[in-house]
Write a structure and sequence with these properties.
flat, single chain, Rossmann fold, six-stranded antiparallel sheet, alpha/beta, ATP hydrolysis activity, 1117 residues
Length: 1117
């Protein structure tokens, strides 16, 4: 993948549209100050491809793409893959409080040189148009995931620099991170969690198994026996219950007849003629006659009242006459006030005109005073501004002084330079001595390989001994498992025999229980045939002994099964342990053969002779190593002294630069005063000239300030006087305006009063045009009094007659109600005995009707008394028979451990017996099924326990292997061998065939071919050499990841590294390294703010930031 053109708009710091053209930029640098947006360019390139950036921490983070003040951003990248050209684009928008990707696209151009779509040319092929499609399409096109791209193209240089100098544990963590193999730690944690879950599951299942302890074969046999006995009881109960029901039925019928007779007798006995029936009829007739007379009198009085009311309504009305009188009085009062109101309105209008004239004169005075105040204020402000400008000039000039310590900067710089040269000479001599001792040590061989060979030999001896023990334990476990399997087979045979014996005993026991219940002539409960001859009784079968024998066989079989499972698991564990030891022995033997090539591949060798040879070689090398350590220490001390001297020179130079910067800063502060030009190279002279100019300027400013201060006081007093005049004029105008407002209100009120009075007089005149004259009103009022008195007299008489009518009607209704009640009581009495067929009644004579009904009731009661005695005798006989049969039924229930109380109360108790027996039988059947299910569940739970135990052992073993000193360490060691081999090839090419890279026992070394192939630790490398080594490791990992992922050819690489921390020599070496890297087939991009490095790159993209946005400018060819 090679980028061609990057377009940004609203992305991070690039708020304005920006284009980065990578055409013909095989080797380029992104240059600019810190924070200008150099790394953001790489973020945008990565975001366009994968929707996120390496620095954002997550592969799905998009919030950092949008500039803080923008609501939308777009990123478009045109790039080449092989010979084809593609373009990918993404749009991000702010939606409410969320930031979301809205539109994406990936297209393939028909023209491999195109950078945009041509409307007239061939249209590009759309490869993806949805967010969920785009990332998959990019990964398929490049063959790299987001993480792989960030490690292969945007190299994690900092990780590899730390990787070189880290200890063994930290290096393993860094390598696993770079390889993306950190998930193995997760596998180990999940395996440990699964092992814990399996252990917990075993505990839960064991608890479940304990709940089935009561489910035994003996319990199952007892339940079956109970079920059989209840079946026989059900047959007996079915025969007895109908007889009890028939006796109860006869007793119920007799009781029903007895109850009916008693009911009829109870209805007939109270039927007698009530007292006072004749007197009731007489009073009712008298009340009806009085009511007719009262109704006639009330009608005559009502007609008299109607005539008087009609005469009053047609005569004069009192309300109309009173209104007319009130209006005549109001009109006379208004006519008396009319002249006074007119005079008041005229006087209010005159006062309003006078107040308006005064208000206009005062407004003109306020305008003139305001103009004068504005003129004096302008003059005062002008004078104050001039005075403030002089004060600011004085403030800017006051701090201009030559800083302390500026005069001796040159002599101090010369002395420190001489010290640095002496330290460099001593460092070169110390390095020569160290290189000589290191060469001698290298010629003596690699000591770490000898140490490792000794350790491998010790491990091989330990593994061989452990393997012998493990093989013996495995043989013992296999033999134990075979014995357990044989014992299980024998136990199964015994269990089958005990089960058959138990079934036979159960059959005999059932027959023994049934034979005593057989009767000649009755059906057999088993075969349902009629019994003709009773068989002889059977002896008590050995059912309990058979059940106990089977229970013993079941327990024995279960225990042996558990022992066999334990033995099988032990064999599997021992086999895995033996296989692991065998594999480790093979690996150690191969490693020993690698460390000692002349050693034959035979595990039965003489290890003591090998150890003696290794000890002799190690002693000689230890002496050379001690000499090399002393030389290295001396070189490190010399290097520390040189570093200290160089740092002192750099510190002084920074002080000179800071002093020079202070001069420029002071000139910038004084820029508005037009200071003189100074020579910034000679900071002492520059400060002296600047201080002399400032002194002269301060004298001039002090003289000007005195005159400006006096003029400011004069202008301020004039403005104060004009302001006072303006305030007095405005106060007078406000007073006049208030008086004018009052006059306006008074004039309006007077006009309103005059208008209101005139309108009311006109309205009263109109209302009184149709009213009677004033002198006719007294006579009309007297006529009203006479008519109203006639109405009141007629009303009183009508009220008296109505009250008399109400009393007569109430009396009539009272006697009529009593008569109706008496007839209702007679009808109710006859209806109560209607079923007994009483005689018909005379509806015209109440007393005669009651006498006829009472005579009939006496005759009927005598007949029913004799029938009641016969029904009582029949009921007693039937009830006694039913109680005898019910007692027999309850005895059978008690014999079978059933409670007769469950039958309930009442004559229907016997009918509940089949249900009680059926419920007991169903419970017995449920008990049998429950025990059978519990036995099956117990077996299933045991199987689950065995399965969970196997899973727990496997997961625990996996968790052990996934520890950092097991599989991850092996993976890291294997990957490190491959990584160092590839990095060594890259290092040789980048260093001009000077260096190779190797490692041993946790340490990295470089082989310096320019120094007789001497071996040096990477900890002794300079900054530039360290950069070469770390870059080689990064390139090697990039190639490996690309090869494993099936990626397309990687045609670009970007380095975002802190080159500013390198010294000049190291920086020169880094520049040479990057130039060598750029000679290959890859596009190489560097991000730096170091000017010396950037100037050596042919194409530079200058990145700078203004107050609004970041800007990119291309320089070079």
């Amino acid at each position: 993948m090679r980028p061609v053109r990057l377009e940004l708009n609203g992305f991070a710091g690039f708020r304005a549209p920006t284009v980065v053209d990578f055409t013909d930029a095989d080797y380029f640098a992104l240059v600019g100050p810190t924070g200008s947006g150099k790394s953001t360019v790489l973020d945008a390139l990565t975001f366009a491809l994968y929707g996120s950036a390496y620095r954002w921490g997550r592969s799905n983070a998009i919030a950092y793409a949008l500039a803080p003040t923008s609501n939308r951003c777009t990123v478009s990248l045109t790039f080449d893959v092989a010979s084809q050209r593609y373009q990918v684009a993404r749009e991000v928008r702010r939606v409410g409080q969320q930031i979301q990707q809205k539109t994406v696209s990936l297209v393939k151009f028909a023209d491999p040189t195109a950078v945009a779509t041509d409307a007239d040319g061939p249209q590009p092929e759309v490869l993806a148009g949805e967010i969920k499609e785009l990332n998959a399409a990019i990964e398929q096109l490049l063959g790299l995931s987001f993480d792989d791209f960030c490690q292969c193209v945007v190299l994690p240089q900092g990780d590899f620099a730390r990787f070189l100098s880290a200890n063994a544990r930290d290096r393993q963590q860094i390598l696993l991170k770079l390889l993306g193999a950190a998930h193995y730690e997760g596998i180990g944690k999940r395996a440990g969690a699964q092992a814990a879950e399996a252990s917990k599951e075993i505990e839960v299942l064991t608890d479940q198994l304990s709940r089935h302890a009561d489910a035994t074969l003996q319990a199952e046999a007892d339940a079956q026996e109970r079920l059989s006995a209840l079946g026989q009881l059900a047959a007996t109960v079915d025969q007895l219950v109908p007889r009890v029901a028939e006796a109860h039925s006869r007793a119920s019928d007799a009781q029903a007849r007895l109850a009916a007779l008693r009911t009829e007798l109870a209805r007939l006995t109270p039927l007698r003629t009530p007292d006072g029936i004749e007197e009731l009829q007489r009073h009712a007739v008298e009340a009806q006659t009085a009511a007719h007379k009262a109704r006639d009198a009330a009608d005559a009085a009502a007609q008299t009242l109607a005539d008087a009311t009609k005469a009053a309504q047609s005569g004069p009305q009192r309300a109309v006459l009173n209104i007319a009188r009130d209006r005549y009085t109001e009109m006379a009062g208004l006519v008396g006030r009319r002249d006074v109101v007119i005079v008041a309105a005229q006087r209010a209008r005159q006062e309003l005109a006078q107040s308006e004239e005064r208000l206009r004169a005062l407004a003109d005075a306020v305008t003139e005073a305001r103009r004068t105040a504005e003129e004096t204020r302008g003059r005062r402000d002008q004078v104050q501004q001039a005075y403030a400008a002089l004060q600011r000039r004085q403030q800017l000039l006051a701090p201009v002084r030559t800083p302390d310590g500026v005069t001796d900067l040159t002599s101090r710089a010369a002395a420190l330079a001489r010290q640095a040269d002496a330290a460099a000479t001593q460092l070169a001599a110390a390095r020569d001595r160290h290189n000589q001792s290191a060469s001698a040590l290298t010629a003596a061989g690699d000591g770490s390989r000898l140490t490792e060979a000794r350790e491998v030999l010790d491990q091989l001896l330990d593994i061989t001994s452990s393997l012998t023990d493990a093989t013996s334990e495995l043989d013992d476990a296999v033999e134990t498992a075979a014995q357990a399997d044989s014992a299980v087979t024998d136990a199964q045979v015994r269990l089958d025999a005990a089960t058959a014996a138990l079934e036979e005993a159960r059959t005999l026991a059932g027959a023994a229980q049934l034979r005593p219940q057989l009767q000649v002539g009755h059906a057999c409960p088993v075969c349902e045939q009629s019994v003709t001859t009773l068989p002889s009784p059977l002896s008590d079968p050995a059912l309990a002994a058979a059940q106990a024998a089977r229970d013993t066989a079941v327990r024995e079989h279960r225990d042996l099964l558990s022992q066999r499972q334990t033995a099988t698991t032990t064999v599997a564990v021992k086999q895995r342990a033996a296989d692991t030891l065998t594999q480790r022995r093979t690996l150690l033997d191969e490693r020993l053969g690698t460390l000692l090539p002349d050693r034959p591949a035979d595990t039965e060798r003489d290890c003591d002779a090998d150890r003696a040879h290794l000890d002799e070689r190690a002693a000689a090398r230890d002496q050379l190593a001690a000499a090399e350590q002393q030389a290295r220490a001396a070189a490190q001390e010399a290097e520390a002294a040189h570093t200290s001297a160089t740092a002192a020179v750099a510190t002084l130079q920074r002080e000179i630069d800071r002093t020079r910067s202070d001069v420029h800063t002071q000139l910038g502060v004084l820029a508005e005063l037009d200071p003189p030009a100074v020579d910034s190279h000679d900071v002492t002279a520059a400060w002296s000239a600047l201080e002399a100019w400032a002194h002269a300027q301060r004298s001039t400013v002090e003289n000007d300030l005195s005159a400006a201060q006096a003029e400011a006081a004069t202008s301020d007093q004039a403005h104060q006087d004009a302001t006072a005049t303006l305030e007095a004029a405005e106060q007078a105008h406000a007073t006049a305006h208030s008086a004018h407002t009052t006059a306006v209100q008074q004039s309006a009120a007077a006009d309103h009063a005059q208008s209101t009075l005139t309108d009311r007089l006109s309205e009263l005149q109109t209302l009184l045009d149709q009213a009677p004259p004033t002198d006719a009103l007294p006579g009309l009022l007297e006529e009203c009094d006479r008519l109203e008195a006639a109405v009141e007299t007629a009303t009183a008489e009508a009220s008296q007659t109505r009250e008399a009518l109400k009393a007569a009607e109430a009396e009539q209704q009272q006697w009529q109600a009593r008569t109706t009640t008496a007839w209702s009581e007679l009808t109710a009495a006859r209806d109560a005995v209607a079923a007994l067929k009483p005689p018909s009644l005379d509806t015209d004579d109440l007393a005669a009707a009651w006498a006829s009904l009472a005579a009939w009731a006496t005759r009927a009661a005598d007949d029913r008394q004799a029938d009641t005695l016969r029904a009582q005798a029949d009921a007693h006989t039937a009830h006694s028979e039913a109680e005898q049969l019910l007692g027999q039924l309850e005895g059978l229930l008690r014999d079978h451990d059933l409670d007769p109380q469950d039958l309930g109360d009442g004559p229907g108790r016997a009918a509940q017996a089949p249900r009680v027996v059926a419920v007991a039988a169903e419970r017995a059947r449920g008990r049998v099924e429950m025990i059978q299910r519990s036995l099956a569940d117990a077996a299933a739970v045991q199987d689950k326990i065995d399965s969970a135990r196997t899973r727990q052992q496997v997961a625990a073993e996996l968790a052990r292997l996934m520890r950092s000193n097991k599989f991850p360490q092996w993976l890291a060691d294997s990957a490190l061998d491959t990584l160092v081999a590839g990095a060594s090839q890259s290092l040789r090419r980048l260093s001009g065939d000077r260096f190779d890279l190797s490692h041993h026992k946790g340490e990295f070394y470089v082989i310096d071919h320019s120094d007789a192939d001497s071996q040096r630790s990477v900890r002794t490398l300079s900054g530039g050499e360290t950069f070469q080594a770390s870059l080689s490791l990064a390139l090697a990992l990039s190639d490996q990841l690309a090869g494993m992922g099936g990626a397309t050819k990687l045609e670009s690489i970007f380095l975002d590294e802190g080159f500013g921390t390198l010294d000049p020599d190291s920086l020169e070496m880094v520049a040479d390294t990057l130039e060598n890297l750029a000679q290959g087939e890859r596009m190489v991009g560097v991000i730096t703010h170091v000017t010396g490095l950037a100037e050596r790159v042919p194409v530079r993209f200058q990145v700078h930031r203004d107050p609004h946005t970041s800007v990119v400018t291309r320089e070079g060819t």
